[in-house]
Amino acid sequence: MATPQTISPNLGDRLRGFQRSAGNIAAGGGLWAAIIGFTVWAAFAERDALTVGIVLGAILALGAVGLTLIFGVLKFAHFAHGDSMMLSAFIAWLLLNGIIVGERAGSETTLLPVTINDLPGADSAIWEFSFGYGLIVAMLLTAVLTAGMMVGIDRVVYRRLRRRKSGIVIFAIASLGLAFVMRSVILIFWGPTPRLYTPGIRNRIDLPFDVSVLADQLFILAAAFVVTGIVYVMLFRTKLGKAMRAMADNPDLALISGIDTDRIITWTWAVAGCLIAVAGVLLALQAHLDSELGFALLLPLFAAAIVGGLGNPQGALVGGFVVGITQEVAVTFDFLSPGYKFSVAFAILILILLVRPRGLFGERS
Q1: What single-letter DSSP state applies at residue 103?
Q2: pLDDT at residue 21, as a whole number
Q3: At residue 312, what are phi and psi to the nearest 5 degrees?
Q4: SS3 content of the chain, % helix, strand, coil (to 5)
Q5: What is the largest CA-CA distance in the chain?
Q6: Domain, as residue range, for 234
Q7: Do residues 358 and 311 lie in contact, with contact meaning Cβ atoms separated by under 8 Å?
Q8: Which segments within the chain are labelled E, that is strand?
Q9: Which pLDDT tens digit goes with each residue over 89-140?
């Protein structure tokens, strides 16, 4: 028979559980209302900034999906993600032009005897784009090379740490060290001068509702959605994706169930490498090739992943658009200059951690 002493604690636990649930619902509903309201307002008041934010959000979404995929399976923050994207963008530039540029101004060396731009019509513009099919080929080849590079880094660095059962802090520090190495490689081989895939004026396209975008931005959006769709099908419609999600949920149970965890880790890095490469090339196409851009992008990438919920690919996709749109629209306010763009991402990150730490799509703890 229940006594008053046992009923009181049970009732208190239920009340506290109800309060937590109500708080989560209120916080989630409030965030969704704020996001939708802000986007609708931007569609009327700051349409141009909203358009750029959507394009940037697509790039951030690709990077954030790769970042959250690594975190979901390997359980550590990959601080080399932004610099990996920029290194991939420079690799694509090398495949296109075959040139490396030293630190001294004007010092150029042809590294590759044959380049993609040497193919017939590779640099002839497609439709209204500023580039030809050569850039698409370079992006695909870079995805393969980056996938191999990330798998190789895992074999040389991260797998050794896993065998030593190192903590997540050691993994994070190792990835931060790799970020500096990648940035140094960029500076050594291509120098600090920003570069463009296709210099010159880029064509604009007029769309309905008085929206004007660069033709290249339409390609960026299309490529981002296609690649994200392929990753979604892989994760939720294939045996490999099922194994990756099982390992993300419970690595020990996945191992006991007969899943080859080493193979899944290898595939995780390969898929993440492809996402890194495509996101890096699209970022350079939208902005430019810059050795510092990858590190500057790291905070928005983490903000996007955390907004959506770390370990949740769908959430990372939404989080990328939330961060991209908010960054671009917020700096149009009179009291903010474009230099504070990345501070906006930091503010979003803090807000999410305070109000809803598990993100918009994160699992309840």
Answers
A1: S
A2: 47
A3: -115, 105
A4: 70, 5, 25
A5: 88
A6: 25-355
A7: no
A8: 99-101, 108-110, 204-207, 211-214
A9: 999 999 998 888 755 555 677 788 889 999 998 889 888 999 999 999 999 9
Using CA atoms, how far apart are residues 276 and 287, in angstroms rounded to an integer? 16
In a domain, 16, yes or no: no
**Spatial contact of 317 and 102, defined as CB atoms under 8 Å apart:** no
Nearest to 205 by CA among 129, 280, 154, 141: 129
CATH number at residue 252: 1.10.3470
Is 337 among the domain residues? yes
Amino acid identity of residue 7, one-letter, is I
Is 135 part of a structural domain of the chain? yes
Q: Are 303 and 319 in contact (CB under 8 A)?
A: yes
Round to whole Å and give the CA distance between 91 and 146.
Answer: 9
pLDDT in tens, 297-320: 888 999 899 888 877 888 888 899
Tokens coding 156: 């040389």
Asked if the structure places residue 8 within a domain, the reply is: no
Residue type, 293: L
The Cα–Cα gap between 161 and 141 comes to 29
Q: Are 175 and 78 in contact (CB under 8 A)?
A: yes
Q: What is the mean pLDDT of the chain?
A: 86
Report which of 349, 339, 342, 314 is spatially closest to residue 327, judged by C-alpha positions. 342
* Residue 164 amino acid letter: R
The two structure tokens encoding residue 164: 């030593």
pLDDT computed for residue 220 by the predictor: 94
Number of domains forming the structure of the chain: 1
pTM (2 decimals)? 0.88
Looking at residues 75-85, what average pLDDT do you find?
A: 93
Distance CA 218, CA 224 (A): 10
